[in-house]
Amino acid sequence: MTGVAWPAIVAIGVGTLLLRASFLYLYERIDLPPRGERALELVPAAVLSALVAPSLLAPEGAVTVVGNDRLVAGVAALVVAWTTENIFATLAVGFVVLLGLQYLV
Asked: Phi/psi of residue 66, each to 5°?
């Protein structure tokens, strides 16, 4: 690498750190309106959905509904999560359904 690359990498890293730390610093000192706090409460669910949905709907790159074992296991886990609100039961059912569909069918 040239002599300019390392200072640029360090500057970008410091800038990223300061940007992320500023949200933590400001969140403690600024009172958000109730609507803003409600929106921030929904961020983890939105991020998790964005991470999980592509692997359930398009495990091989294209959206497939018929023959999609992951989608069936995800729906089964969703039903268990909705009815029991137990994370261990949700994980167990999703895992067992997925393994059952992959190895028995």
From this structure: -80, 125
Q: CB 29: neighbour CB atoms within 10 A?
A: 6
Instruction: Name the helix (H) or strand (E) containing 24.
Output: helix 5-29
- Tens of pLDDT, residue by residue over 37-74, are 888 889 998 998 899 888 888 887 778 778 888 999 99
Q: Look at residue 60 and give its three-state secondary structure.
A: coil
Phi/psi zone of residue 62: left (φ > 0), alpha (ψ -120 to 50 degrees), beta?
Answer: beta
Residue with tokens 């990498």: 9
CA Rg value for the chain: 21
Is pTM, for the whole model, over 0.70?
Answer: no
